[in-house]
Amino acid sequence: MRYMACFDMDGTLIEVKSSWEFIHEILGTEEEARIYRQMYERGEIDYRRWAELDVSSWRRRDFSEVLRRVDSIRLMENSERSIKMLKDSGFIVGVISSGLNVIADKICERLGMDFCKSARLLLEGNEVIGLAEDLPPDEKGSVLEEVARGYGIPLTRVAFVGDGDSDLSIFEMDLGLKIAFRPRSERIVRLADHVVHDLLEASELILRWSKGAR
What we know:
This is phosphoserine phosphatase. One of its GO terms (molecular function) is magnesium ion binding. Its cofactor is Mg(2+). It comes from Korarchaeum cryptofilum (strain OPF8). Pathway: Amino-acid biosynthesis; L-serine biosynthesis; L-serine from 3-phospho-D-glycerate: step 3/3. There is one protein chain. This protein is α/β, with parallel strands linked by helices. The chain has two domains: 4-15 and 75-213, HAD superfamily/HAD-like (Rossmann fold), CATH 3.40.50.1000; 19-70, no CATH class. The chain is 45% helix and 20% strand. It contains ten helices and seven strands. It has a seven-stranded mixed beta sheet, with helices on both faces. A hairpin with a 2-residue loop joins strand 3 and strand 4 (127-133). The longest helix is centred in the C-terminal third of the chain and has 15 residues, at 199-213. The termini are close together.
């Protein structure tokens, strides 16, 4: 039976900590983003409404500069070697991210991922016209469960690598292996089986775990 390794994207596979903030900085919409974030943090709106409002600040803006600069996003050190190591060993490897598809799809293509789940913007030419689909952090766990089921892989044969509170719903699951990479959250540190600061170390741990689980 096969194994699966799943990765968060922002701050894990790429150096960008937030793909949403990356876009706000390019388009100069940081002030709107700050207001909407504060509304969410005060509990005035839920995550879905926050995502909709964030995207509304980009609506009908020229997105060509964002699309151009996506290609220059730096992969996290050793991400390519780490993913190749797992794929060469027969793993199904992919991404589950609350980040945005305009970045996630490119990163997944560069790394040769088997699956790529993220929030999805609706584009018309070079303009954003809305949010086609969001992926709230508290739903990442159910998305992972659905993906694993689709490949016929039990959760006990799934490893996950992530870095922050947005990954909490996955770290709370009963997975085979949970790795915190350069963690920005004490909560996931407490839930992780290992804490690492190099993606190669993460892949080595995953391979060692899979051999011991057979």
